[in-house]
Amino acid sequence: MNLTRRVRDILACYEGENPGTKANLARMLMTGKLSGTGKMIILPVDQGFEHGAARSFAVNPPAYDPHYHYKLAIDAGLNAYAAPLGSLAAGADTFAGAIPTILKMNSANSLSTMVKDADQAVTASVDDALRLGCGAIGFTIYPGSDSMFAQYEELRELSREAKAKGLAVIVWSYPRGGEITKEGELAVDVIAYGAHMAALLGANVIKVKLPTDHLGNKESKKVYEEKKIPIATQADRVRHIMQCCFDGRRIVVFSGGAAKGDNAVIEDAKAIFAGGGNGSIIGRNCFQRPREDAMKLLGQLIDVYKGKA
Amino acid sequence: MNLTRRVRDILACYEGENPGTKANLARMLMTGKLSGTGKMIILPVDQGFEHGAARSFAVNPPAYDPHYHYKLAIDAGLNAYAAPLGSLAAGADTFAGAIPTILKMNSANSLSTMVKDADQAVTASVDDALRLGCGAIGFTIYPGSDSMFAQYEELRELSREAKAKGLAVIVWSYPRGGEITKEGELAVDVIAYGAHMAALLGANVIKVKLPTDHLGNKESKKVYEEKKIPIATQADRVRHIMQCCFDGRRIVVFSGGAAKGDNAVIEDAKAIFAGGGNGSIIGRNCFQRPREDAMKLLGQLIDVYKGKA
Amino acid sequence: MNLTRRVRDILACYEGENPGTKANLARMLMTGKLSGTGKMIILPVDQGFEHGAARSFAVNPPAYDPHYHYKLAIDAGLNAYAAPLGSLAAGADTFAGAIPTILKMNSANSLSTMVKDADQAVTASVDDALRLGCGAIGFTIYPGSDSMFAQYEELRELSREAKAKGLAVIVWSYPRGGEITKEGELAVDVIAYGAHMAALLGANVIKVKLPTDHLGNKESKKVYEEKKIPIATQADRVRHIMQCCFDGRRIVVFSGGAAKGDNAVIEDAKAIFAGGGNGSIIGRNCFQRPREDAMKLLGQLIDVYKGKA
Amino acid sequence: MNLTRRVRDILACYEGENPGTKANLARMLMTGKLSGTGKMIILPVDQGFEHGAARSFAVNPPAYDPHYHYKLAIDAGLNAYAAPLGSLAAGADTFAGAIPTILKMNSANSLSTMVKDADQAVTASVDDALRLGCGAIGFTIYPGSDSMFAQYEELRELSREAKAKGLAVIVWSYPRGGEITKEGELAVDVIAYGAHMAALLGANVIKVKLPTDHLGNKESKKVYEEKKIPIATQADRVRHIMQCCFDGRRIVVFSGGAAKGDNAVIEDAKAIFAGGGNGSIIGRNCFQRPREDAMKLLGQLIDVYKGKA
Amino acid sequence: MNLTRRVRDILACYEGENPGTKANLARMLMTGKLSGTGKMIILPVDQGFEHGAARSFAVNPPAYDPHYHYKLAIDAGLNAYAAPLGSLAAGADTFAGAIPTILKMNSANSLSTMVKDADQAVTASVDDALRLGCGAIGFTIYPGSDSMFAQYEELRELSREAKAKGLAVIVWSYPRGGEITKEGELAVDVIAYGAHMAALLGANVIKVKLPTDHLGNKESKKVYEEKKIPIATQADRVRHIMQCCFDGRRIVVFSGGAAKGDNAVIEDAKAIFAGGGNGSIIGRNCFQRPREDAMKLLGQLIDVYKGKA
Q: Between the CA of residue D171 and those of D142, D244, D281, what are the distances in Å?
């Protein structure tokens, strides 16, 4: 399969990486219905770790089965599927080679009492990713948390090993903890800062939440206002995030948060597309719908990212 | 010995594992009077570590001798015997090959003053398990404890090494510490969450306590009530736990807690059987009875799991 | 030198160990005037670390010289000599092969301010033991201390390495710290619990203090009273400790504490002998007496353990 | 390219180093418009990590692109370019061999809540520096911070590895935290102490801020006053810093802090030149100006260091 | 060069050590004007780390240059020169083989806010000592500090590695922190205890401060008074320290503290000589004098240690 011009252009931005890592990025970009477009939709299923199986899957019981998610991602023509060790392993043989997979290396859970020092446990190794045939590792950082520096150092080690072994590195950058308020977690300046740090830490793909137009940091608020950085529309904000990720040299995908109506999900995707973002990483809005509804919604998102909607 | 269809089906769920690990799971499933049924009874003897030798064995003094437990498990036709390093080693040569053994890797004790950060000491290594001829390692996690993340990371390392060396991994998942109340430790939602995390962490076999119908977490209580998840009977709750462990793709065994009457123990086993659970892990209710009473009770449990009771 | 029947029986209990470790146990049991009896007297000299040289040796100044202790242990016909790195090394060449030596791996000191978290520094390595020709390592644990879990994990690593290299492992089990009171440190239930944990941790030889008839733990007190465990006499208590160490499958030696009169020391030994204990580990009551008094006392103790007194 | 006499003299001071490390120091000294003069101007771009992309680059948007900085440093004829992992990697292939690069190994950020224990995360490895073709690593220490000892130990390990692999080591020595006041961070005695410690820690090149004539430490104030150490002018203070760095045996470069007018920047450089300093490390005053203004200013600085201004 | 009888006797006390370590001890004892006498004068220059360059060297500015100290130690005929990594490296090539050097492995500084947990940063590695041609490593412990156990464990590792590689180990034992008062830091019982622990930790050479006749510890005070240990004169106290260091089996050198008059320095040396101590380790009283004054004073000290004064 020849890479498209668009994918070659994207790969050319990853100057510092091994061919193995680039090949895995290429596989994700050349898989599914968005193959070759430079756009991506990824299915992440770590809600069970975050909130428990019942809170995640009782609304759609077939989703208790790890195979369900593999099938959904494959059948909907997505680019990749991400999950923690146990559930990824539970289908790794059945679906070997059927879709690029991302091993989520660390996870938090809602029994944790950590707030200002919000952290995650590292629950898998890079060699787990290799033996399960994954193309990338996923790692969450909490910029602003009092555990942030330790997380960055964990990421450094996992990233170094993953890249040396030809895997790609996807960073979930979610500002949280420390002096960051609930509103600040979604503030455009804070998310843009977190995305920039992920890029500086060597992330190949960066995942952030769609930001609001709130400015969460007093010092940066002055700059945003003085320099009149456009942040009024969602597309503006996506564009700004892309700029903060090495002026568009890094793939950035956006998550939409809690389950919501189809229209809201589609509007988000349109803004991401308009702002030059690379796509969606969409979990609860997939597996917490009945399968056929999820398939339909994903089809509509694919159309958006193909520029047909 | 040809594996039964039931055992082959169970093994097929362990997609991500080495043949060595599967072989050790198969050995446990093909040993003793429940051989081939997919059901298991395991004898765990770590009460001495938890509460001291006298509190554990004075009621039945022959049990001070580590050989006693090996013989009991073998003579009763159980599937496996689990114990900490010192006592397992004390019979490892005499009973070599006579029954699958599980090296309990970590242990707490009642002199510890840790409460919210309840933890255990890791007292053995994977290579100890190999040199003693064990088929599996056992590891306790305390979901909810402020030490939880560190425990998960210890488990990650031990599990990675154990599986790479062909051993199976059995996780004791006991919610405790942090903001979990005494009642919450047995709440069905909390235990189901802990069991799900054990599965996500890569456990091959999951051990939990039989839950009550209490709901311990405000957020999940809403979901359990809204979705009308059946938790009224013990069998319902066992069935729910199995669902939370990858929809039945993982072996789950249940412990019954403190010493109690024969009838109560048998009723528990009937509920586990009815709910589709894989069996019992039963310590104090074995070795704190005179040997012949224990043998009789274990015979009755075996009948339950054979569907004869 | 052919092993006696008694020594062969003792060694047979060490099922899980390498021949190298058994050989070192055998050497200790076959050395000195108690050779072959299954009884042992060990000279431990770590008081200098615990309290300083002057507090330890000013009462008997020749004892400032590390050679003094080697000579005393050899001339008195003891089974082994234990000391920290520096002082053991100071005579290791002169007395090479003259008596089995035990490298004390960790030490506390009286300048430390730790109380509830009482701990020791690990001051030597297993390879030090090998290069100095030692037959065993010695390690202190403080069951009950808030540092207990970390100590158990240090012991796990040192023990694993020592046994892999053919050395024996001797554990000083001294309950202390956490919620343990001064009286509780000597309580028979607490010491028995600490001894049992040492056995579970894989100790080959266990060293405890002679317990009082106090019961230090509310929960275990109930059991001791209910089950009428005999603890009235010192011999009863020694017998109970032996039972808690795998029903006599482990060598247990007892220390007598601060310097005291000859009669008291001899009475202790008689009780240890009567209760089936393996012997004495006796420091201050040796080196804080003039050499000829110490020689005489040790001769009397040897007679006790030979059953002649 | 033959080394100049001046550069050979400088290299001769690095007695303890490998030829590989000296070669990399030589490359920096023999690159750009100051080649062979023993003077250096380095472009450091880690402001994005410290304050976010928008606060760093919105004033001059082309600077969002990592290539911008490489080009600026090359076109202006500077000696080296320093940046964190992600942004350095983003141009490492395009600009391979075009200018010596310095991988900044650790970074702080303005979301951190650490004050007295101010610290940085180590975000790259020495092997990253090698695979990206860097000639040196850069590492920040905060003398005075409660995290200082841990930082020194991180530097020890990274420095040892970097030098063993033929790289040079550049230390950013920025007193901060602990009992150091805001005014004290720039005090000449405190900065001189921090520079001296960097030299003792084995730094090949030392980067400090230009100090004020404030004396921040009571004990050293007495000595400075008693011994009448000249600190009145900026050139005096630079001269004192050089003396504190092994009497001029180490390369020291000075940073100028926040963006300011051209004249102020040039006056700083004249003082550094007059005081015998080795040059400037100048970030915000480069990339926060439009490119042509930055080019002009850098040209003027080069003239200063050539002794033409 | 044949070893003298006195040096051979000293070396014979180092039973546990490799020939490489003994050779390095021999080199120190056979160097300089005290060659072969069993006495030593060592020049230590770590004051720059402790207090900054200006506080250390402004009183005698040539001392800013690391070469100054090498030359002083060589020209005065001292036995060895000790310094931290950076300054030792700065002359390691020029003075290769000219005098035995000691790499000071850890250092504190006066910006640190640690008091009860007083500690030092480990700033060099054993391999640094080898590549720089050193004959020994130097390491400071703070007996009594809440960081003491961690320091002992660092020393264990560095000492093990250093000795395995044929280097000698010199321990600076300076009681400090925890519950030790300022007066207690110099108390003879406390310093004697610290010296004894250094010996137990495996130190080849022990460096302590000259003690006062104060008794700093309540428990040991009783023993010193009861046993009438002679501590009235400085020579008495030196003799007691030697006794506490394995009854004279270890080399002990004494430091004199802050800069003071020539007579006071000479009186100290006379007391050390009279008490059987091995010599002086003298820093500020050397390099804070003009070179010719220092040379004269060192000449007088050498005469004292030759028994000529």
A: 10, 15, 12
Beta strands per DSSP E along A126-235? 136-141, 168-173, 205-209
In contact, D168 and D24? CB cutoff 8 Å? yes
C177-202: average pLDDT: 97
Selected for mutation to probe chain B from C14, C170, C191, C197 (highest B CB count within 10 Å) is C197
Q: What number is the ipTM of this complex?
A: 0.96
Res A69 pLDDT > 90: yes
Please give the structure tokens belonging to residue B306.
């054979």
What is the nearest CA distance from B252 to chain C, expressed in angstroms? 27
Tokens of B143: 């979901």
The residue among B39, B16, B15, B17 whose CA lies nearest residue B28 is: B39
- Whether residue A64 is predicted with pLDDT greater than 80 in this model: the reply is yes
Tell me the average pLDDT across B239-244.
98
Q: Are D140 and D110 in contact (CB under 8 A)?
A: no
Closest in C143, C201, C223 to B55, CB measured? C223
- The pLDDT tens digits for D207-223 are 999 999 999 999 999 99
| Spatial contact of E104 and E124, defined as CB atoms under 8 Å apart | yes
Residue B216: which residues within 8 A CB-CB, separation 6 or more? Answer: B180, B181, B183, B184, B185, B187, B189, B190
Cβ of E143 within 8 Å of Cβ of C87? The answer is no
For chain B, list residues whose CB is within 8 angstroms of any CB belonging to chain A. Answer: 13, 15-17, 116, 143-144, 146, 148-150, 152-153, 156, 160, 175, 178-180, 189-190, 192-193, 196-197, 199-203, 217, 219-220, 223-224, 227, 229, 240, 243-244, 246-247, 249
Q: Which chains touch E (3 or more CB pairs under 8 A)?
A: C, D
Q: List, for residues E42-89, the tens digit of each pLDDT value.
A: 999 999 999 999 999 999 999 999 999 999 999 999 999 999 999 999
Helix crossing, B188-200 with B234-244: angle to 10°? 30
- D71 catalytic, yes or no? no
CA distances from A10 to A136, A248, A249, B72, C49 (A): 17, 9, 7, 65, 65
Would you list which residues of chain E are within 8 Å, Cβ to Cβ, of chain D? 48-49, 51-55, 58-59, 61, 64-66, 84-94, 107, 109-113, 119-125, 127-128, 131-132
In chain D, count of helices (H) and strands (E)? 14, 10
Q: Pick from A256, A210, A268, A204: which is nearest to A27 by CA? A: A204
Token couple for D84:
């964190």
* Pairs of residues, one from chain A and one from chain D, whose beta carbons lie less than 8 Å apart: 127
Question: If you average pLDDT over residues D42-65, what whole number do you get?
Answer: 97
pLDDT (0 to 100) of residue B247: 98
Does the CA dihedral D255-D257-D263-D268 come out positive or negative?
negative
Angstrom distances, CA of residue B11 to CA of A236, B20, B33, D195: 52, 12, 19, 64
Which of B149, B200, B220 has its CB closest to that of A119? Answer: B149
DSSP codes joined into one string, C109-145: -TT---STT---EE---HHHHHHTT-SEEEEEE-TTS
The amino acid at D58? A
Angle at D135 between CA D131 and CA D136, to 5 degrees: 100
Measured in degrees and rounded to the nearest 5, phi and psi for residue A251 equal -75, 130
**Is the CB of residue C170 less than 8 Å from the CB of residue C14?**
no
- Residue A202 and residue D92: Cβ atoms within 8 Å? no
Strands annotated E in D142-212: 168-173, 205-209
- Bridge-based pairing of strands A121-122 and A106-107 is antiparallel
Encoding tokens for residue C149? Answer: 């879990």
Please state, in angstroms and rounded to a whole number, the distance separating the CA atoms of residues E140 and E146: 14
How does residue E139 score in pLDDT terms, banded at 50, 70 and 90? very high
Q: Which of C71, C163, C207, C209 is catalytic?
A: C207
